[in-house]
Automatic annotation (TrEMBL):
Upper taxonomic lineage: Bacteria, Bacillati, Actinomycetota, Actinomycetes, Kitasatosporales
Keyword DNA-binding attached: yes
One Pfam family of this chain: MerR_1
InterPro entries: DNA-bd_dom_put_sf, MerR-type_HTH_dom, MerR_fam, PPM-type-like_dom_sf, PPM-type_phosphatase-like_dom
Organism the protein comes from: Streptomyces globisporus
HTH merR-type domain mapped to chain residues: 15-85
Domain annotation PPM-type phosphatase: ranges: 152-392
Keywords, ordered alphabetically: DNA-binding
Listed GO MF terms: DNA binding; DNA-binding transcription factor activity
Protein name: MerR family transcriptional regulator
Length: 396
């Protein structure tokens, strides 16, 4: 019996056998048969008698693209979308995919580093602890003999100057700080549902959670928020076009658990310096990260709000698909910290220096959120605004 890959003479013209094509494309014959079955790379000709596959040498570039995309870990179903696009659209799709990979890798790296630090500290504590010592389970910056830490906070949303509806939501309470920026037909419902889903979570019970329990609670909370958004926008005519960002901090008495997805932000004011502690999940931010766009150029980018990650109604078949898995991480709190959470209706129109000035000089969180909303309106108020300011204080 003849092997697949033997030439069929004039019937194939300038076509090459699967064996020859495998060598030139650096793909195995087995991979080529698999890609044919999946519709990723069809042969130019299949012999109707014996089923042998033949390829046009012009298909080599497409075959190599498939191989390269597999090497960066892109799933086969997404590769199918990429190879069907023109070169420019394919480049956008690949950039979006890799930005998502980097964002997810960064989140896993942060979690890994936290666990290394946490386990190292616990190991040293256990090594020092005498056999008759009592382990009270306390942790965090309050320390032995210090008063318990608590949160004093305020939240405010504003429709802005231009928009006719407010799709932003904000919440500030003793256990939860959150902002969400909805988009699409069901944006208002999505942002409200995301925050509401956080309120009954197990982290809210009295008493501080251990680091391990808090990490588990954060994962559960993120899943609950994603489900709530899907359910909230399901009645919309196009549920896949509706969703929300979410930036939330969950307070346990000594630690803050951060849940973040999208381009809403969280900042920390400590020692007089304002630090951004979240990373935007946007195409523009990914271009800044890889050096193809400067922060100054980003301000005039034609698609500044194009998100790579958000809580959405459904997976949508768009040029830049949106992932819906939030980042989660832990932060140790210190007395005197002041946190700002805000939607991009504030951060994109008010520069960091003015944000810092408003956060630093305000006497309390209520005054701070009023000042911040005023700054956004003074800057033209092109979008809805949501902000939360919270102080970490020692309870009296």
């Amino acid at each position: 019996m003849e092997r697949e890959g033997r030439a069929v003479g004039a019937a194939s013209g300038d076509l090459v056998t699967i064996g020859e094509f495998a060598r030139s494309s650096r793909l195995s014959a087995k991979a080529l048969r698999r890609y044919d079955e999946l519709g990723l790379l069809r042969p130019a000709l299949v012999d109707p008698v014996n089923g042998y596959r033949y390829y046009d040498p012009a298909q080599v570039e497409g075959a190599r693209l498939v191989a390269w995309l597999r090497r960066i870990g892109m799933p086969l179903n997404r590769i199918g979308r990429v190879v069907a696009l023109d070169a420019g659209a394919a480049a956008v799709e690949i950039r979006a995919y890799w930005a998502r990979v980097e964002a997810e890798t960064a989140a896993r790296r942060d979690l890994a580093m936290y666990l290394v630090d946490h386990l190292s500290v616990e190991g040293r504590t256990m090594a020092r602890m005498p056999d008759n010592a009592e382990d009270t389970g306390s942790s965090g910056s309050a320390g032995a003999g210090a008063g318990a830490l608590a949160i004093r906070c305020a939240a405010l949303t504003d429709i802005g100057v231009v928009r006719t509806a407010n799709q932003d939501a904000a919440f500030a309470g003793p256990r939860l700080l959150a902002v969400a920026d909805g988009f699409g037909e069901g944006g208002a419902e999505a942002s409200a549902a995301a925050i509401e889903a956080l309120k009954p979570s197990t982290w809210g019970r009295e008493g501080a959670l251990s680091a391990a329990d808090l990490l588990n609670a954060l994962e559960d909370t993120a899943d609950s928020a994603a489900r709530a958004v899907r359910e909230a926008v399901a009645p919309c005519a196009a549920p896949d076009g509706s969703g929300t960002t979410l930036t939330a901090m969950l307070w346990t008495g000594s630690r803050l658990g951060l849940v973040h997805i999208g381009d809403s932000r969280a900042y920390l004011l400590r020692g007089g310096e304002l630090f951004r502690i979240t990373h935007d999940h946007s195409l523009v931010q990914s271009m800044i990260d890889d050096g193809s766009l400067s922060p100054e150029e980003a301000a005039s980018h034609p698609a500044p709000a194009l998100l790579l990650k958000a809580l959405v109604g459904e997976a949508r078949p768009a040029a830049v698909p949106v992932a819906s898995r939030p980042d989660v991480r832990l932060r140790e709190a210190q007395a005197g910290d002041r946190y700002l959470l805000c939607s991009d209706g504030l951060s994109t129109v008010v520069d960091t220096a003015d944000l810092r000035a408003a956060v630093v000089t305000a006497d309390d969180p209520q005054e701070a959120v009023r000042r911040l909303v005023d700054l956004a309106r003074e800057a033209g108020g092109p979008d809805n605004v949501a902000c939360v300011v919270a102080d970490v204080v020692v309870e009296e």
